[in-house]
Amino acid sequence: MSAQPALSTGAVIWDVGNVIVRWNPRTLYSQIFADPAECDGFLADVCSLAWHAPTDCGVSFADNCAALSARHPQHAAAIWAWKDRWWEMFSGPIPETEAAIEALNLRGVPQYALSNMSHETVEGTFAMSPAFARLAGRIISGHEGVMKPDPAIFQLACARFELKPADALFVDDSATNIAAARALGFQVHHFTDPAGLWPALEAAGLL
User: Fold this and answer.
1) What is the pLDDT of residues 26-74, one digit of tens each?
2) What residues form DSSP beta bridges with 170?
């Protein structure tokens, strides 16, 4: 992360998937498809992230899977696994992030979540780590009907958490979301390697 000025009023806004907990559809679908190439093709052409996106904006898993199964009946069982075996896509919390959240909490740094996530999976996801209890608030796209990188959800976060963008460090694994936050004036950390998180928080004057 490049050097940036320390925050005048420190707060951290966390993405959740692949920042606090690890999520990857291949963790499940590698169990369903023995051939890695077949697995990759299915996730690229059938149960793609673009197909999944409406569930992050409020569409139910059942409706999304039913519509896709109608288009790809030969893959119906694998498609419905997206709903029925959803939790098998997770491989647990990220220890470096958990440790950072605990350290920030001890320093009294306000922390929040801003995540693209289905309203159906929020409670199960937030039960995966005690670190989630340290967050003072959360904005979930599936509840709000708008998702990152739409500026509206960042503006909603500022209003609800009573923050100015320049006074918050936004942490996300998506380069697109990071670019959107930076354009709105947030300080940002693109989470690509857990080892880089603590130095980024130190650089922002938070640890």
Assistant:
1) 999 999 999 999 999 999 999 999 999 999 999 999 999 999 999 999 9
2) 13, 188
Helix (H, G, I), strand (E, B) or coil at 23: strand
Rg (CA), the chain: 18
Contact indicator for 90, 111 with CB cutoff of 8 Å: no
Angle at 114 between CA 60 and CA 127, to 5 degrees: 70
CB 181 within 8 A of CB 154: yes
- Nearest-angstrom CA–CA distance, 23 and 191: 14
Q: What is the pLDDT of residues 91-125, one digit of tens each?
A: 999 999 999 999 999 999 999 999 999 999 999 99
The CATH class, in words, for 12-20+94-203 is alpha beta
> What are residue 190's DSSP bridge partners?
172
What are the extents of the domains in the chain?
A: 12-20+94-203, 23-89
Return the amino acid letter for 30.
S
Which token pair is 88? 């098998």
Helix (H, G, I), strand (E, B) or coil at 186: coil
d(CA 162, CA 85): 37
Separation of alpha carbons 41 and 43, rounded Å: 5
